[in-house]
Amino acid sequence: QEEKIFAGKVLRLHVCTMEGAEWLEEVAEDTTVEKLKERCLKHCLPGSLEDPKTVTHHKLIHATSEKVLTDTKTVLEENIQDRDVLLLVKKRAPTLLPKMADVAAEEKRKQEQKAPDKDAILKATANLPARSVDRSVTHHNMRDFQTELRKILVSLIEVAQKLLALNPDAVELFKKANAMLDEDEEDRVDEIALRQLTEMGFPESRAVKALRLNHMSVTQAMEWLIEHADDPSVDAPLPGQAPAEAPAEGAACSAEAAAGASSEEAGEEAKDELTEIFKKIRRKREFRPDPRAVIALMEMGFDEKEVVDALRVNNNQQNAACEWLLGDRKPSPEDLDKGIDTNSPLFQAILENPVVQLGLTNPKTLLAFEDMLENPLNSTQWMNDPETGPVMLQISRIFQTLNRT
């Protein structure tokens, strides 16, 4: 009966506090939020209203909308409905502004810790004797690990090839390695993406080119095809790409010839055939420039061969390749194929390491070296490999140790 009499005038609100207290408050729609807050404080904090600041130090929050209710507005004006949940929260004390003396002390401390400028350095070192240091020689002596690592890998590959040639199963092992290298993911085209483009009416060869330029993205490839529809060079092959089928066939023939030869009858011939297989495998891993980077650099006016060389030296990094083309072009592409001095203390220390010696007899190590040689970004993958990781770790440690001395 009471619900019928007070329907639409009295609201039943569920009030909660941060301490976990909960209760129901019945209030009229014209009750102000301040009055409601006083009733809530009387319920959860008896005697607290003796301090007039208690009400102002608390606030009511509408749980659903997360809105802080305004004290001067009524329950109706705040659009509070029957059965709504309110949260009674104590306001946080405002942060005090720092005193001027504290600010001045902090600023003084910062000035004392500030690094000296060029004038201060010149003034402090005015009485010191001048020295002429050849910065180019100093920079040259600070060997870069990535540059040296490439030379180390070139020489270690030669050593690994000689060691693996003594393995009676070497031919069979490298026939499998040859097959692994045939499965080059970069040469594959997503058949589903290609079919989607050809069903739209684009020629297959043009669609393949668009997919390779746009990392197999159908949407980006379609936009490229539409944008270059009237381009006379749209069907031209991608710059820097060379077919790899011939080396593959040659490597397969060499592997078959080596497999057919008896180790007892023609041991030396088998070694020669293995050397040929190694060369064919190396050719398969020849550098393949990023087509987008090639096109972008050629549009700047550089020759295609220069662009490919720049990208090879700088691991397909377009910005670094551009700086190389505009600079002194060091190192040269020919320097990339040079190994380290085999009589140097660094190379001798690496070869004398037992972990490296054992790793060089593993065909997977040779494949890892070949991969890192042409794809330096894959170094992390081989560092984390349980078979090749310890070898790479020892090489890095030996280099860092000798580089400090």
Biggest sheet: strand arrangement: 2-1-5-3-4
Q: Output mean pLDDT.
A: 75
- Strand segment count: 5
Tell me the number of helical segments per DSSP (H or I, 4 or more residues long). Answer: 21
Q: What is the ordering of alpha helices and beta strands?
A: HEEHHEEEHHHHHHHHHHHHHHHHHH
% residues in beta strands: 5-15%
Overall SS class: alpha+beta
What separation lies between the terminal Cα atoms? 96 Å
- Major beta sheet summary: 5 strands, mixed
Helix share bin: 40-55%
What is the overall shape?
A: elongated
Which radius of gyration do the C-alpha atoms yield? 38 Å
Oligomerization? single chain
Low-confidence runs (pLDDT<50, min 5 residues)? Answer: 133-143, 242-266
Key descriptive features of the protein:
single chain; alpha+beta; Ubiquitin-like (UB roll); Helicase, Ruva Protein, domain 3; 5 strands; 54% helix; elongated; repeat; UBAC1
